[in-house]
Amino acid sequence: MLEPSIDALQEKINSKYTLVTLSAMRARQMSETKNPLVDHPFSHKYVGMALEEILAEKLTIADGQKKDSE
């Protein structure tokens, strides 16, 4: 079982494409800075940490971008 679950993540960001893009960009950033936004992440990999940040609402899409719910 993958954590966090895709269902929980899609409650935060409805588009799977946006989830993948956002988490990949953040993972690349973390590989350089080594600074996650969540305290004590469960994942040891950067993509997992980025997904945890999305679930914790520490990482979101910009306000100028359209969300599916709008």
From TrEMBL:
<keyword id="KW-0240">DNA-directed RNA polymerase</keyword>
<dbReference type="GO" id="GO:0003677">
    <property type="term" value="F:DNA binding"/>
</dbReference>
<keyword id="KW-0808">Transferase</keyword>
<comment type="subunit">
    <text>The RNAP catalytic core consists of 2 alpha, 1 beta, 1 beta' and 1 omega subunit. When a sigma factor is associated with the core the holoenzyme is formed, which can initiate transcription.</text>
</comment>
<dbReference type="GO" id="GO:0003899">
    <property type="term" value="F:DNA-directed RNA polymerase activity"/>
</dbReference>
<keyword id="KW-0548">Nucleotidyltransferase</keyword>
<protein>
    <recommendedName>
        <fullName>DNA-directed RNA polymerase subunit omega</fullName>
        <ecNumber>2.7.7.6</ecNumber>
    </recommendedName>
</protein>
<keyword id="KW-0804">Transcription</keyword>
<dbReference type="GO" id="GO:0006351">
    <property type="term" value="P:DNA-templated transcription"/>
</dbReference>
<dbReference type="Pfam" id="PF01192">
    <property type="entry name" value="RNA_pol_Rpb6"/>
</dbReference>
<comment type="function">
    <text>Promotes RNA polymerase assembly. Latches the N- and C-terminal regions of the beta' subunit thereby facilitating its interaction with the beta and alpha subunits.</text>
</comment>
<dbReference type="InterPro" id="IPR003716">
    <property type="entry name" value="DNA-dir_RNA_pol_omega"/>
</dbReference>
<comment type="similarity">
    <text>Belongs to the RNA polymerase subunit omega family.</text>
</comment>
<dbReference type="GO" id="GO:0000428">
    <property type="term" value="C:DNA-directed RNA polymerase complex"/>
</dbReference>
<dbReference type="InterPro" id="IPR006110">
    <property type="entry name" value="Pol_omega/Rpo6/RPB6"/>
</dbReference>
<dbReference type="InterPro" id="IPR036161">
    <property type="entry name" value="RPB6/omega-like_sf"/>
</dbReference>
